[in-house]
Amino acid sequence: MALSNIFETPAPGFNFDNTARNAALEGLFDGGNTPKPMKTGTTIAGVVFKDGVVLGADTRATSDEVVADKMCAKIHYISPNIYCCGAGTAADTEKTTDLLSSNLTIFSLNSGRNPRVVMAVNILQDMLYRYRGQIGANLILGGVDCTGNHLYTVGPYGDVDKVPYLSMGSGDLAALGILEDGFKPDLELEPAKELVRAAIQAGIMNDLGSGNNIDICVITKQGVDYIRPYRESQYKDNRKMKYKYRPGTTPVLTEKVVPLKLEVVLETVQKMETA
Amino acid sequence: MFEETGPVWLSEEVKTGTTIIAIEFDGGVVLGSDSRVSAGASVVNRVMNKLSPLHDKIYCALSGSAADAQTIAEIVNYQLDVHSIEIGEDPQVRSAATLVRNISYKYKEELSAHLIVAGWDRRDGGQVFATLKGLLTRQPFAVGGSGSSYVYGFVDAEYHKGMRKEECQQFVVNTLSLAMNRDGSSGGVAYIVTIDEHGTEEKVVLGNQLPTFFDQ
């Protein structure tokens, strides 16, 4: 009998296999200056409006003071009706949301229905609590299911909050100011999108770890509108991206042709079975 | 500036730094809590309801680490569900408190959460149990959380036996208001839950409706 709950009970205790590897790595980089994990130093926000949920995120991923990715996708697909914004350690948010998405797909196939947002939240909370904060994922989950429109946040230690609007990441306080000022229950679609855009914009303007473009994801009962990018940064660089030069650009000074002498040593014919 | 890998509060554990209170009256209990969740100096959620249902007529009040407290409440909720199906009737408040105590005691070193369990059952009426650090004790009333230190004097002086339901509700609201005024980690709105034979009533008292005292 197939269970609709695909999670096996995990082995008790923690898996510390990587500590040996990390110790070895520290030996390679003298003085323990191992490269720091890429953090998304981010602004993400979500708002529940009349017909659904709007999620927004910036697109900058930083590694210390260098922008590692200018068009990073921080709004992750979980299921057709649930999307998740992630802040914190980039690898942790990616993998956690991937894992959650796979498990919920299996659940959908087994049960024949779209998962509920609260189920996604419970699975996430379970996993993050078990790892006691070692997984640095701050997630905003938003989605629409048969019970309504929901917005949840899950912290790295496994605490869950259900709220009508929120922001996370290093730019969250800037974004929260905009949200606190502009939020009203039962907003229409356009004002809700504008509110989220303004909140992310505040984060981009006031936080060094956030920047570049703004992605928006609108989830309603009718479907999902993933607008990437919703607003582009005005500081775009005009690089060509494709560097193809026509033949003759580089002058040829000399040319020497050396024919390779090849002999046929062995020739075999293998008939293909097409029956 | 560039050394940081994000704001300090993002990596700090989220605590509920709280004021919670539960009090028994003849025929039921009243539970109350504030609504502030803090991570370091930042308020992560200003409207969190820390009164979590364990069963229809049994609630618990959360304090300490938010993740630990929420998880304990969820686990006990599940265990109580199974237990009540097994015995075929509503569980006793003492059973709920014992389940919470078992987890708090066994994982004493790893967890840092304190839950106050209160509810009504047919056998003993309204009951309040404190489960701090793995003990189990029934008390006429219990306060907990960081804000409770500021109101021990108030509750000790003002409590008397034989308070009616409305008096208890007022007592709870007053206590919460005083604690929220003095404790930096408590604030927001006050959630009140009243449980008696007839049912469970949840109420929210907004910030501007809380009773004011001499300095406000």
From TrEMBL, chain A:
<keyword id="KW-0539">Nucleus</keyword>
<protein>
    <recommendedName>
        <fullName>Proteasome subunit beta</fullName>
    </recommendedName>
</protein>
<dbReference type="Pfam" id="PF00227">
    <property type="entry name" value="Proteasome"/>
</dbReference>
<keyword id="KW-0647">Proteasome</keyword>
<dbReference type="InterPro" id="IPR016050">
    <property type="entry name" value="Proteasome_bsu_CS"/>
</dbReference>
<feature type="active site" description="Nucleophile">
    <location>
        <position position="42"/>
    </location>
</feature>
<keyword id="KW-0888">Threonine protease</keyword>
<comment type="similarity">
    <text>Belongs to the peptidase T1B family.</text>
</comment>
<keyword id="KW-0645">Protease</keyword>
<dbReference type="InterPro" id="IPR000243">
    <property type="entry name" value="Pept_T1A_subB"/>
</dbReference>
<comment type="function">
    <text>Component of the proteasome, a multicatalytic proteinase complex which is characterized by its ability to cleave peptides with Arg, Phe, Tyr, Leu, and Glu adjacent to the leaving group at neutral or slightly basic pH. The proteasome has an ATP-dependent proteolytic activity.</text>
</comment>
<dbReference type="GO" id="GO:0005839">
    <property type="term" value="C:proteasome core complex"/>
</dbReference>
<dbReference type="InterPro" id="IPR029055">
    <property type="entry name" value="Ntn_hydrolases_N"/>
</dbReference>
<feature type="domain" description="Proteasome beta subunit C-terminal">
    <location>
        <begin position="239"/>
        <end position="269"/>
    </location>
</feature>
<dbReference type="GO" id="GO:0005737">
    <property type="term" value="C:cytoplasm"/>
</dbReference>
<dbReference type="InterPro" id="IPR023333">
    <property type="entry name" value="Proteasome_suB-type"/>
</dbReference>
<keyword id="KW-0963">Cytoplasm</keyword>
<dbReference type="InterPro" id="IPR001353">
    <property type="entry name" value="Proteasome_sua/b"/>
</dbReference>
<comment type="function">
    <text>The proteasome is a multicatalytic proteinase complex which is characterized by its ability to cleave peptides with Arg, Phe, Tyr, Leu, and Glu adjacent to the leaving group at neutral or slightly basic pH. The proteasome has an ATP-dependent proteolytic activity. This subunit is involved in antigen processing to generate class I binding peptides.</text>
</comment>
<dbReference type="InterPro" id="IPR024689">
    <property type="entry name" value="Proteasome_bsu_C"/>
</dbReference>
<dbReference type="GO" id="GO:0004298">
    <property type="term" value="F:threonine-type endopeptidase activity"/>
</dbReference>
<keyword id="KW-0378">Hydrolase</keyword>
Automatic annotation (TrEMBL), chain B:
<dbReference type="GO" id="GO:0051603">
    <property type="term" value="P:proteolysis involved in protein catabolic process"/>
</dbReference>
<dbReference type="GO" id="GO:0005737">
    <property type="term" value="C:cytoplasm"/>
</dbReference>
<dbReference type="GO" id="GO:0002376">
    <property type="term" value="P:immune system process"/>
</dbReference>
<dbReference type="GO" id="GO:0071222">
    <property type="term" value="P:cellular response to lipopolysaccharide"/>
</dbReference>
<keyword id="KW-0378">Hydrolase</keyword>
<dbReference type="Pfam" id="PF00227">
    <property type="entry name" value="Proteasome"/>
</dbReference>
<keyword id="KW-0963">Cytoplasm</keyword>
<protein>
    <recommendedName>
        <fullName>Proteasome subunit beta</fullName>
    </recommendedName>
</protein>
<keyword id="KW-0888">Threonine protease</keyword>
<keyword id="KW-0539">Nucleus</keyword>
<keyword id="KW-0865">Zymogen</keyword>
<keyword id="KW-0391">Immunity</keyword>
<comment type="subunit">
    <text>The 26S proteasome consists of a 20S proteasome core and two 19S regulatory subunits. The 20S proteasome core is composed of 28 subunits that are arranged in four stacked rings, resulting in a barrel-shaped structure. The two end rings are each formed by seven alpha subunits, and the two central rings are each formed by seven beta subunits. The catalytic chamber with the active sites is on the inside of the barrel. Component of the immunoproteasome, where it displaces the equivalent housekeeping subunit PSMB6.</text>
</comment>
<dbReference type="InterPro" id="IPR001353">
    <property type="entry name" value="Proteasome_sua/b"/>
</dbReference>
<keyword id="KW-0645">Protease</keyword>
<dbReference type="GO" id="GO:0004298">
    <property type="term" value="F:threonine-type endopeptidase activity"/>
</dbReference>
<comment type="function">
    <text>Component of the proteasome, a multicatalytic proteinase complex which is characterized by its ability to cleave peptides with Arg, Phe, Tyr, Leu, and Glu adjacent to the leaving group at neutral or slightly basic pH. The proteasome has an ATP-dependent proteolytic activity.</text>
</comment>
<dbReference type="InterPro" id="IPR029055">
    <property type="entry name" value="Ntn_hydrolases_N"/>
</dbReference>
<dbReference type="InterPro" id="IPR016050">
    <property type="entry name" value="Proteasome_bsu_CS"/>
</dbReference>
<feature type="active site" description="Nucleophile">
    <location>
        <position position="18"/>
    </location>
</feature>
<dbReference type="GO" id="GO:0005839">
    <property type="term" value="C:proteasome core complex"/>
</dbReference>
<comment type="similarity">
    <text>Belongs to the peptidase T1B family.</text>
</comment>
